[in-house]
Amino acid sequence: MGVWRETVNFFEKEWNAGTRIDDYIVISLLGKGSYGTAYLVREGTDGRLAVLKKLRPYKQLIDQSGKLLNWEADVLRKLDSPHFPKLMAFGNHKKVPYFVMEYFEGKTFDQLIFEKGKSFDERESLHIVKELVKLVKIIHETGIVHRDLRIPNILLDGSTLRIIDFGLAANIESEGRTMLKHKDYMREKSIHADYYALGHFLLFLLYSSYESEEKKEKSWEEELQLSEPTKGIIRKLLQIEKPYEDSTTLVQSLESAAQKIQ
Question: Where is the Protein kinase domain (predicted)?
């Protein structure tokens, strides 16, 4: 195991700031995902910022043709909306496949909550998730399920929501659903995977304004002071109760719950 880790670490050497990758100059490392590494880059011709994503070296050992990157790039091509990154270029630098996509300003909800200390009340949280469901509907209508709708992958740019990182996206499977453990719900290739993730996203927003002095761990239903309609929405999203089967019904439920909050 030690030798393997040393080998992986050797191949995981990052591109330094100032490194030129074809028409792009690396500014900084943005982060590492399950299979790719993302960099903030500047285009050499007009100077605009972009995001360059390359295959992580250890993944290249099992995916030399770059199928994973090709798949994510194809997903971005299908999504024609200002709420998702536009694909800008696809290339190969010294046998390392990469693609370049649009860079969004703004902060992820991970940054807003844990770095900026931003909090959201129940009504705000319902409104945000309602607007997010509309974006998820666009994804589903292309036959794709995102499967990674977590707070690091959802941005707020002013008042505009944006969804990033389609690395785990998959084609929606039409066959009957497979019974999975709760921890695997987000990896289903069905719309319910994204609805389940939205349930956790909603809880993150609601917990942002929660303060507890008790050390005893309780369930979200015990800790959070929520209206019954909101509790019902979360139960359905988390598949505790019969889940939502379409986005229209979910949006209507979110609108109705928000209107009932005093």
Answer: 24-262
